[in-house]
Specification:
With 196 residues, the protein is α+β, with helices and mostly antiparallel strands. It has 4 helices and 9 strands. It has one domain. The N and C termini lie far apart (81 Å).
Length: 196
């Protein structure tokens, strides 16, 4: 009768049950964290694709892509567009529906993670930062560029026709010797045809 019991278990049985429950809770927590990361990364992948598609449509309609400033799209009346707040729309075509009702913010925007846009108005690059490097689109070459996606380094992206993602757009255009006097309509139409 001198045995201590807890819910019908003796002391060593109670410790065993506690250890098993603690293990289950720990595994569940880490699986849930992994699932949340995968979900945020899937959202990032979709967001960058949606932004890319909207930028191509913008380029076709306006014969140039929107300019960029400090990683932001400059296509809003108030200046650089704010991720998660402003729509992507043309300055002059105010009667047209926006290309995106709201530029999507990174799922961790509140923690300072952002998308990063670079444009020469002839070509563009849009970058994001995966939390997990097991995505097919993950690129150590992009990560090595050190592009800031807010509080993290960008490691995946998309670009307009023929623009590599392993170098910054101004560097690429300097290498190919872009003639500033040529229009961008041919480049943009080539982008459109490739995406159809």
């Amino acid at each position: 009768m001198g045995r201590l019991s807890f819910l019908g278990f003796n002391r060593s049985e109670a410790i065993g049950v506690f250890v098993i429950l603690l293990s289950i809770i720990t595994l569940t927590f880490f699986n849930m964290q992994s699932s949340l990361k995968k979900g945020r990364d899937a959202t990032r992948k979709d967001d960058v694709r949606d932004i890319f598609d909207a930028l191509i449509a913008y380029g076709i309609d306006n014969n140039s892509f929107p300019p960029s400033s400090n990683g932001q799209i400059v296509a809003c009346p108030s200046g650089p567009c704010k991720w998660g707040v402003d729509p992507l729309e043309a300055f002059l075509a105010q009667s047209r529906e926006p290309y995106l009702e709201k530029l999507p913010p990174d799922p961790q925007n509140s923690a300072g993670v952002k998308y990063h846009y670079i444009s020469t108005q002839r070509r563009f690059q849009i970058f994001g930062s995966f939390e997990d490097d097991r995505w097919d689109e993950y690129s150590p070459e992009i990560e090595a560029l050190g592009i800031s996606c807010g509080t993290r380094t960008c490691n995946f992206g998309r670009a307009s026709h023929g623009v590599p993602l392993d170098k910054l757009l101004p560097e690429y255009e300097n290498e190919i010797g872009v003639d500033e006097s040529t229009g961008s309509a041919a480049i943009i139409l080539k982008n459109k045809n490739e995406n159809e």
